[in-house]
Amino acid sequence: MMQSKLYALRKDNGITQEEMANKLGISRGRYSMKERGNAEFTQDEMFEISKMFKRNIDDIFLPRTYQIGTK
Description:
71 residues, 434 Repressor (Amino-terminal Domain), globular
């Protein structure tokens, strides 16, 4: 759920994964893993993303249907 919300927000705003990664100070590959749900966003990254899109954190990141280590 979070992955599709974040992907849609990013695409709707014409932002690439590379641009997102640069704003968060991480590599594009690392950002890609996080967007796909293969790694977790830090709290700081979640705050930055919510500011970037002018949305509440819970609007983007909750509810979480996937957790690391479960399928």
